[in-house]
Amino acid sequence: MKLNLPFVPTERAAWLAAGAAPVAVLLGAISPGAWVAAPAAAVALFMLVLLDAFLAGDITLWSIEADDDAEVGEATDIVANAKFAKGRIPHRIEAALQFDPRLHEEGRATIALLDGKDTARGKFRALPSRRGTARIERAWLRWTGPLGLGARQVERELAIDIRIWPDLSPVRSADLQTFLRDAQIGLIARRLRGEGTQFEALSEYEPGMDRRWIDWKASARHTKLYARENEAERNNQIVFAFDCGQAMCEPVDGLPRIDRAVSAALTCAYVAMKGGDRISLFGFAQRPGLMTPFVSDTRAFHRLQSSAAELDYHAVEPNFTLALATLTGKLQRRSLIVLFSDFTDPTAAELMIESLGRLVKHHLVLFVTITDAEIEEFVGSAPEDLATLARSVTADTLARQRATVLERLRRLGIDVVDAPWDQIGPQLIDRYFAIKRQEAIG
After folding, report:
1. What's the pTM value of the predicted model, to 2 decimals?
2. What does DSSP say about strands 108-115 and 150-165: parallel, antiparallel, or unpaired?
3. For 108-163, how does the pLDDT look when each residue is reduced to its tens digit (9 = 90+)?
């Protein structure tokens, strides 16, 4: 099917016209009778543009393709295809796209299509920066003639939606999968002896066993030392709570803190579900938002991923008092609450500390925050001038205030993980195992 396509001049034709204008003025000044050469040259250039555009050929089919799903911070390809009449591929073909900025910065892209066997094909590698649904709204395709003076252009309205999910690359990593396969809480759920709270059996005490396991009453009856073997603690409730307020929307190394937190939480959640625990997600800003039912089967892990994708970004201060009171009212038993949050000054942290102080009376709380590498860089910078010195002093003050808030949380009995974003996931998993060994949740 042939299409009626508009002819447009290229950038090369525009530069030729711009360069010829001063020459025409100079020629008219030197020889006024030769002024007719200027319009004649303009007509000739116009005819060349039309001829070149005509020689560019007709397009029969073109399309824009993209995956239905992508992950924040992970590249995804957008592919442009074009097929031309009689298999004649023009020398230069470009596609331009307009889309949601969360799919890639600035919300636009240009794709150069290269000659293939039967069709021209090109791709653009987008890097999603926020979760949600991003739409590719409009596309343009332009191809030029052999002289590079004239081009044809088509335009199309698109409605291609790409769902941007949380980043699960840490869950799929070979190191984590190998660890889960080889660890005690491996792929097959089985009864684990030696630690936990639920009695499993008695066995004769052997050197190297923990003396706390000795059952003195049973030992007295049998005149030998016997030790208790307990089943490892399972079926614990773990809530990953996310502050979706202004501080967590600030970027760290190119992605919002909330997205870094979600990736770390889902990685730890996957490990915990392998260990037989139950997981729920809770999000809040000015008001409590998402709260999922508890999930324990790893086959339902996609539900947590889908729910985490719904955690929105809010440029407001969070209401810790309302959010944590609501969360406490929804929990019917003692749980481990892993709170991902951040703060900018002690005043903003006062209500958070007060609310966490009430929460820790009924639940085990783990506070997770991302280290501000920029502040540390400013603190360590050499005071070469007054501006650098003032910035260093301010950064040092903020760092001290931050350390004070975290110390107050520790004094309340709250465990704290404060690490760079790329270390939060592993440190969170290590802390989870330490809590399991201490049997502190149930």
Report:
1. 0.74
2. unpaired
3. 999 998 876 678 889 999 999 989 889 999 999 988 888 878 788 888 899 899 99
- CA dist 421 and 417 (Å) reads 11
Indicate the helix (H) or strand (E) that contains 264: helix 257-274
Decide if 131 contacts 283 (C-beta within 8 A).
Answer: no
Over the chain (442 residues), the average pLDDT of each successive run of 10 is 59 73 67 65 74 76 91 92 78 90 90 81 92 92 82 88 89 74 48 48 69 74 73 77 92 90 93 90 93 89 90 90 93 92 81 90 93 72 73 76 89 92 91 83 69
Helix pair angle (174-182, 257-274), 10° resolution: 20
105 touches 91 (CB < 8 A):
no
Side chain identity, residue 17: A
Q: For the chain, count helices (H), then strands (E).
A: 12, 19
- H-assigned helices in 297-385: 301-309, 320-330, 346-359, 373-380
* Cα–Cα separations (whole angstroms), residue 344 to 94, 292, 341, 369, 405: 46, 29, 11, 12, 11
Q: Angle 257-274/301-309 helices, nearest 10 degrees?
A: 170
**Quick one: CA dihedral 355, 361, 365, 368, positive or negative?**
positive
Exposed (0-12), middle (13-18) or buried (19+): which is 410, by Cβ within 10 Å? exposed
In the chain, the domains with their CATH numbers are: 1-165 (2.60.40.10), 169-187+233-438 (3.40.50.410), 201-231 (no CATH)
244-254 pLDDT, tens digit each: 998 899 888 88
How far is CA 421 from each of CA 89, 225, 253, 401, rounded to the nearest angstrom?
A: 48, 48, 9, 20
Cα-based angle 280, 286, 289 (whole degrees, multiple of 5): 30
User: Phi-psi region for residue 194, left (φ > 0), alpha (ψ -120 to 50) or beta?
Assistant: left
